[in-house]
Amino acid sequence: xxxxxSDEQFVSGAARFGFQAVDLNPVHFIRQYGREKAAxxxxxxxxxxxxIDLDVDWRSSxxxxxxxxxxxxxxxxxxxSLGCFKCCTxxxxxxxxxxAPFMAAATRRLRLCADILGAYxxxxxLEFVGSRHLRTQWANPFLWEMDDALDWIETIGARNVGLLVxxxxxxxxxxxxxxxxxxxxxxxxxxxxxxxKAGPIENLLDGDRLYPGEGVIDLxxxxxxxxxxxxxxxxxxxxxxxxxxxxMEELLARSKAGFDKIFANL
Length: 266
Description:
Strand content: 5-15%
Radius of gyration: 18 Å
Number of strands: 10
CATH topology: TIM Barrel
Structural class: alpha/beta
Distance between the termini: 25 Å
């Protein structure tokens, strides 16, 4: 979204272009404005917080993981107080750790995170990442397919854990609409939408995405598949791309044009 000077500017700008949800840090939001004003900014603009990030380092040392748990409780309380009940994180498809002990530790840690978030009525969404170049970025392959992510969620065993489904990773995994139709409503916590450049899928870079409607992903099929599977929640834009000099207003207009194009065909 370019340079955003404040959360207030972000919320009001999103509303001005017809968006009904934003993803932001609820703790920072409340610290900046106070809970009552933060809630008023959202309500007066007709905007809700779609999801929050899992700001806990569950991938590295046990010490760093434990250090983040207190902040997670604070984030859960802040999100709940502002009416947000989704938290998301991503699963990198490779790791420098040995895969088996890494999965064992990550399973336990994510289960604990889910338990903490569950106390505030918040669901945890795990995003599988399909970008091929990241599968060999670190020493050992880990997990990048949707079915494997679902199996891991079952192993984690917390009822409030599900998927964050991103159109880019659906595309880079060469998944089809039929794969989405296998999902149940409880499998899907949150959805990201973006687009991809033309060319071989194995050459697509994770940080070089396009705005919705500007590329080759079958976004109409993607959204229809999720809708048929029973998802009726927020569809949030996530465009990881090289930095731009465009203003927030210009990029919001670009986003709106893309959303209008995609949703007009549904």
